[in-house]
Design goal:
This protein is an alpha/beta fold.
């Protein structure tokens, strides 16, 4: 795929992640993630930062770090149907934290496209040092 065509698809999938983030259970920070099969462009999973299955769509607490919400990347990776020999890209509205970066390194994701930065750059560094292609793109803020 040409880089211009790839960039257009990257913008599309990142916009999908942004739209998904609007359904987040955490009012403090809405994050969305989309996992895509690199071979055929199929979306295989979508995640938001939210509570576990069957739990109310509201945070446990408004205190930072105490919302009880799993991160969008965690939810998307847990929902993905991995097929052997395939590689995937994850699109995330915000840069993955160090824990999410470790999870991403342990699945067949070889490319990460994210929008906004994260206060701790360790996750990005870990993914780059782990051999992943990591790309930052501007995410649309249209409502």
């Amino acid at each position: 795929m040409t880089s211009e065509k790839q960039r257009a698809w990257d913008k599309t999938y990142l916009e999908m992640a942004r739209l998904a983030s609007q359904h987040s259970h955490d009012p403090r920070l809405q994050v969305g993630a989309v996992v895509v099969d690199q071979e055929n462009g199929s979306v295989i999973a979508i995640g938001i930062n939210g509570r576990g299955r069957g739990r109310p769509n509201e945070p446990l607490s408004l205190e930072p770090g105490q919302s009880g919400c799993a991160h969008a990347e965690m939810n998307a990776l847990a929902r993905a149907s991995w097929q052997g020999g395939k590689t995937y890209t994850i699109y995330v509205t915000h840069a993955p934290c160090p824990i999410c970066a470790a999870l991403i390194l342990n699945v067949p994701v070889t490319r990460v496209v994210y929008g906004e930065g994260y206060r701790d750059p360790t996750g990005i560094r870990e993914m780059v040092e782990g051999g992943l292609e990591v790309v930052q793109m501007e995410v649309s803020h249209a409502q």
